[in-house]
Amino acid sequence: MDSNTSTAHAYRDRCGAGKARDRRAGESGPVGVHAAFADAMLAGLARRPRSVAPKFFYDAAGSALFDRICELPEYYPTRTELALLAERASEMARCIGPGADIIEFGAGSSRKVRLLLEALERPRRFVPIDISGEHLHAAARALRAEHPGLDVHPLVADFTRPFALPPAPAPDGAGPARRVGFFPGSSIGNFTPQEAHRFLRMAAGLLRGGGLLVGIDLVKDPAVLHAAYNDARGVTAAFNRNLLVRANRELEADFEPERFAHYAFYEPVRRRIEMHLVSLDRQAVTVCGRHFDFAPGETLHTESSYKYTVDGFRALAARSGFVPGPVWCDRDRLFSVHWLEARSGA
Q1: DSSP string covering 81-147, please?
Q2: Cis amide prior to 49 (ω within 30 degrees)
Q3: 196-208 residues labelled b (16+ CB within 10 A) or e (exposed)
Q4: Cβ 99 vs Cβ 178: under 8 Å
Q5: How far apart are CA 151 and CA 170, in angstroms?
């Protein structure tokens, strides 16, 4: 544990908002989610350059804002991936096979898995995993109503850290179900390449003998990317600033979100979008009783979204314990969906 993390723990323990949040943890996630957010914000504000992981965008308000982003005309990933799923779901279902357990990483509203579930043959169970418990449970209730014969078992967890799947249903005579992961939306792009490798290694072990269906955003014209992350209606800007609103509510912070500008750009060498909150003037903020100064123009780096080539991602998957299989791309090659077989000995 580094000194920043140790200091973060000390200040987090003094954060009175955490106690109130923890008492109503059942509404929005486990107690550990609040503690992780406090630690991440304190450590991220203490380091230079300042940064915090994008997973903390997704409280209930952030999840709702992201759902609005997915409907924006500039934001191509959602509609492109939905079109691929609608057109090719039967092919994907043949890769998955009958009677599978489907595990969705970062499920959110579980909108895309509906297209997959419709095409699957007798899926045994659906386990959506998400850090935002309120949003997750609402989506799970809707899915149960739509698929009354499906065992829907939501799991509030941070899937980037160790977690345990809920116990599998009793065998029906056909043996253990084949585990298949579903990770749509190009969310794996929020990981650095090293983090993506670690996630894929973990997934290969969890899903061994099964596979992973994963959405990958492709390298493309930077102008298309710029528009997608700087929409004309300002929804992405509100989504970015909501991180500060959440900190004010949960961490006894006193950010003034309007004094931070949304800034997103494509960095071509690393092939990633970077999203930042830029301080518009000199200001001081308090989080969990700890004080931080921002200079004019200083940023808090809130997200990176890496873009891949098809061959580049297949090579990463192969290094991580998977056997790359079919790939589905749209006509303009904006987006791709990959089927990866998890080696039995992964």
Answers
A1: HHHHHHHHHHHHHHHH-TTPEEEEET-TT-HHHHHHHHHSSS--EEEEEES-HHHHHHHHHHHHHH-
A2: yes
A3: bbebbebbbebbb
A4: yes
A5: 12
Whether residue 209 has pLDDT greater than 60: yes
Hey, CA dihedral for 327, 140, 126, 188, is it positive or negative? positive
Phi, psi of 130 (to 5 degrees): -155, 155
Among 126-135, 197-206, 212-221, 244-253, the minimum mean pLDDT is found in 126-135
CA 277 to chain CA centroid, nearest Å: 19
* Dist CA 105 CA 102 (whole Å): 10
Give tens-digit pLDDT for 23-32. 333 333 445 5
Q: What type of residue is 226?
A: H
Answer for the pair 190, 54: CB distance below 8 angstroms, yes or no. yes
Pull the structure tokens for residue 22: 């923890």
In angstroms, what CA-CA distances link 69 with 20, 232, 323? 30, 11, 33
Contact 238/212 with Cβ under 8 angstroms? no
Judge contact between 105 and 187, C-beta under 8 A: yes
Instruction: Report d(CA 186, CA 288) in Å as an integer.
Output: 33
Length of the chain: 346
Pull the structure tokens for residue 228.
């997608």
